[in-house]
């Protein structure tokens, strides 16, 4: 479910290449991100076959299972930080300021459902200092509240471990198109040390990795901006990551890279208050 673009997950992110990776991974054509769902690839599959892996697919989410999930019209995902504010990735938006061009769709797992709640944006706030490396978060102010449960964000590193849930309407295979139905999957935490072996350019402290060594389950194109979450000590959902970038989708030894929400929790809360 990670947000890439139609091309495969990119190699590494060094500077311009990293930005390209990011833009691709989460974006579709013309800068739009195509959310990806879950693609399964047999363990041991070769890198050559990684671009067109056999798809087993993600598990379809039940209606109301993740009520905080939001689909954004530019091709990204997001979560309801507040009833009138969506938290997404910085690379999904073009900057900060007034913006009425984005439509947020919520309340359904089927994007074609007549019950879908659709609300326009009024403002966008891209993370201050975002330049394509780290700080990959943004807030979108909505024209009116969406009366659905919100997703709280982690403000400590206490939940940056274990098994996470990811969900999105992105491609079900690397290079594929968005899905009609919301898909979900679980991915395990990957330490910074291990992740740096795959991505030397990883910004430790600002990014968190998750995925299986053998690949097979991952976010993909069009999932960018969506949440990575888990249960907290009260059994409530808490967001620990934002789909950011990676090399292809579900490739062995290339986990997904997510914005580490706890690092930016204070900045996100302050920015939201300002909206």
From TrEMBL:
Keyword terms of this UniProt record: Disulfide bond, Hydrolase, Protease, Serine protease, Signal
Keyword Hydrolase: yes
InterPro entries: Peptidase_S1_PA, Peptidase_S1_PA_chymotrypsin, Peptidase_S1A, Trypsin_dom, TRYPSIN_HIS, TRYPSIN_SER
Signal peptide range in chain numbering: 1-47
Occurrences of domain Peptidase S1 (ranges): 55-273
Presence of the UniProt keyword Amino-acid biosynthesis in the record: no
Superkingdom per UniProt: Bacteria
Pfam family, any one: Trypsin
Protein's name according to its UniProt entry: S1 family peptidase
Lineage: Bacteria, Bacillati, Actinomycetota, Actinomycetes, Kitasatosporales
């Amino acid at each position: 479910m990670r947000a890439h673009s139609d091309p495969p997950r990119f190699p590494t992110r060094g500077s311009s290449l990293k930005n390209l990776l990011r833009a691709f991974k989460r974006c579709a054509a013309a800068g739009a991100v195509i959310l990806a769902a879950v693609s399964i690839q047999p363990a041991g599959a070769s890198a050559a076959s990684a671009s067109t892996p056999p798809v087993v697919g993600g598990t379809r989410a039940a209606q109301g299972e993740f009520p905080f999930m939001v689909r954004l019209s530019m091709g990204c995902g997001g979560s309801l930080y507040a009833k009138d504010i969506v938290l997404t990735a910085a690379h999904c938006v073009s900057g900060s300021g007034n913006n009425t061009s984005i439509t947020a769709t919520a309340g359904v797992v089927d994007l074609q459902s007549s019950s879908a709640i659709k609300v326009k944006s009024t403002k966008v706030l891209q993370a201050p200092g975002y330049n394509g490396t780290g700080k990959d978060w943004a807030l979108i102010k909505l024209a009116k509240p969406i009366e659905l449960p919100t997703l709280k964000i982690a403000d400590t590193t206490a939940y940056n471990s274990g098994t996470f849930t990811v969900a999105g309407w992105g491609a079900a295979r690397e290079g594929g198109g968005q899905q009609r139905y919301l898909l979900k999957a679980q991915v395990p935490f990957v330490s910074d040390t291990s992740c740096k072996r795959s991505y030397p350019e990883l910004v430790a402290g600002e990014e968190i990795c998750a995925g299986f060594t053998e690949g097979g389950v991952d976010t993909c194109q069009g999932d960018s901006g969506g949440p990575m979450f888990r249960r907290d000590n009260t059994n409530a959902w808490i967001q620990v990551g934002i789909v950011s970038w990676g090399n292809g989708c579900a490739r062995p030894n290339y986990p997904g890279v997510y914005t580490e929400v706890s690092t930016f929790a204070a900045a996100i809360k302050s920015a939201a208050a300002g909206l």
